[in-house]
Design brief:
The protein is α/β, with parallel strands linked by helices. The chain has one domain: Aldolase class I (TIM Barrel, Alpha-Beta Barrel), CATH 3.20.20.70. The chain has helices at about 25-35, 55-70, 85-95, 110-125, 135-140, 145-150, 165-175, 190-195, 210-220, 225-240, 250-260, 275-285; strands at about 10, 15-20, 20, 40-45, 75-80, 100-105, 130-135, 155-160, 180-185, 200-205. The chain is globular and about 50 Å long. The N and C termini lie far apart (about 35 Å).
Amino acid sequence: MDPYKLSGCGTALVTPFRNGEVDYPAYERSVKRQIDNGMHFLVALGSTAETPCLDDDEKKKLLQLTRELAPDKLVVAGVGTNSLKATIRNMRLLDDAHAYLVVVPYYNKPTQRGLYEYFKAVAEASDKPIILYNVPGRTGTNMTAATTLKLAQLPNVVAIKEASGNMEQIRAIIHGAPEGFAVLSGNDDQTLELMLEGGQGVISVASNVAPAQMVALCEAARHGDFKKASGIFRRLIPLFEACFIESNPIPVKAAMAMLGLMENELRLPLTSCEKSTWDKMQRVLSNLDLLKR
């Protein structure tokens, strides 16, 4: 497979912290683990990375490290904001990325026409591939299938990370998309259904914790072995559920700490998980045989 093709599983990488600072050695360990387990592509600086709480120097260094550690992988950078000017500024800042992930503008609540004009302006500001990101649960606005398919006609708009949870909408995008436009799940628990419908894969939170299993799931689905994919998927359902008991990335940070990969530390306004979440995640990891004995 062409390593720069958007398909299979891509991990939305978390950002480790220690004593309030970015823990770069822990980040290196985490990225190397992804590569060692065959991850198809990597997504740095998304919402899972607590990017709104990172400064420009931290963003640049994290992206640079990702590129250095994964020279043969597609590396996507999250650059979206709720301001066209700020989004374009992030694109300039993070120009080492192979492609940009651009979220639907949050808080502003734009119309569908506003969304089209915004993403069109973003696409025209760069010759790099643009991946749309629809996540109404975080942004307050849903981008419709019609708007997505209109944007898919733009030459460098190459994919969407769809996290609306609305399979009817996602199905319409998959079946209406032009050739070469990738539809990726933004929800781990819809990965199998989306790929069964003809989608290309997932940008995953759970793959921070279980990279080998998520790669195996997507590989089986890509090769049409949905019986095998279904078996893997069913085993991972408790992990998918546990990763979103509290706001992402609170539970996944706890899991990564249990695995000894980083501290269980977040930046405000996010805080570490409740004891009940910790206990549940611990049981899930134990049942998946991920905890060291």
